[in-house]
From TrEMBL:
Coiled coil: none annotated. Mn(2+) binds at residues 143, 145, 179, 203, 398. One of its GO terms (cellular component) is cytoplasm. GO terms for biological process: folic acid catabolic process. It comes from Turicimonas muris. This is Peptidase M20. GO terms for molecular function: dipeptidase activity; metal ion binding; para-aminobenzoyl-glutamate hydrolase activity. InterPro entries: Amidohydrolase, Bact_exopeptidase_dim_dom, Peptidase_M20, Peptidase_M20/M20A_hydrolases, Peptidase_M20_dimer. Signal peptide: none annotated. Residues 226-314 form the Peptidase M20 dimerisation domain. Pfam families: M20_dimer, Peptidase_M20. Its cofactor is Mn(2+). Gene3D superfamilies: Zn peptidases. Keywords: Hydrolase, Manganese, Metal-binding.
Amino acid sequence: MQELPLQLVTQMIADRRTIHKRPELGWTEFETTYFIAKRLEKLQIEFQLGGDFLDRASVHGRDEQEVRTAIQRALEHGVPKTFIKKTQGYTGVAGIFDTGRPGPTIAIRADIDAVPVQESQDEAHESVMGGYCSEIPMVMHSCGHDAHTAILLAVAEWIVENQDNLCGKFKFVFQPSEEGVRGGLAVANGGFLDDADVLLCFHIGTKCKLGEVGICEKGFLATSKLNVTFEGVPAHAGSNPEAGKSALLAACNAATLISGIPRHSKGLTRVCVGKLIAGESRNVIPAHAAMEIETRGETGELDQYMVNHVCRIVNSAAEAFDVKARIETVGSAVNLETDHEISVRLQKIAEQVESVERVAYYNDIAASEDCTWLIKRVRDRGGKAGYFLFGCNHHGHHKTDFTIQDEVSLPVGLRMLIQYLAERCSG
Ligand SMILES: [Zn+2]
């Protein structure tokens, strides 16, 4: 097993805490992007910023107003204007390090965004005790992407320090906007990973407790996130109701009908109308309604089956109430499919890590992850991919008291990755 230099681990924990303090939502990660870029620069690793490596036509769910506000906040927090300009308004970093010796191209992906959750101020909460609680109201790294970012930075540093013993090329994807599965497709379609022989993706926590490593080969569902709006005609509800066209009634009917879409016999399917806001006031025929809907399926076809039904119902409800409907896709992911050969390698490595007591396959997660777009892109071009989880004792992702025991948990993720690289790319 590769030794983990103490300095590398110390730096990784400090990085995680620095990032934890300044969490940013998807597509607004300007401070985080700057932090990563500065480090890669220091390590003399070549990199591109979001504006250069993302396919803009595939960007989902990016709000211009939110981006502008975030840029302002980043400027006030010391990110130089020249740097913001270089991003062209798009977050994320893609790094390349070439050892100059023939060998495989290995890519690793970490997501960098946070969640719209207010962090717990409880005295016993890990980050309150450590003095690195989120400084941004209603935003928190409550999914552990701060840990992912810090680990990948540590891997990059390890590669630079050990370059004389390594061969091939390394690619680092610091992906923006994983939450809401909004950023993955833009990274994939940007083509940065098209020459990767292997892509490794990972996540802290989920079903794994501290001391546990999980390998995933399938189980993340394909998903589509849809925003639906209905546009009606307002009218006074007492004096001339016949002149009104109710967007609220169209939306309510769509919501109940959508919940009745027959589930498919070929595999898991899901649908959720998670949000419905409609109406202006008590005595006005409601002219506006907005819904947030998601579908999931065990395969892309099963997800599409659910999406087709949702679209048909939305359009039919609009017609029934004589209002206009608009459907916008604001996020998507395909289902997970990785390569057994990589899984076995990851499993063997995990079994050698001293602090890991249990290694198991988790193929029934039933959540979604948009690194699946990156994995699909690499595999479609003949590359291979692997996905692993490493544990922490959390109280639930996306929760106000999410916690990860970084000093014990993060080294496991780091060790898994550098051991893989040491075995596959020793020069
Ligand atoms: Zn996550």
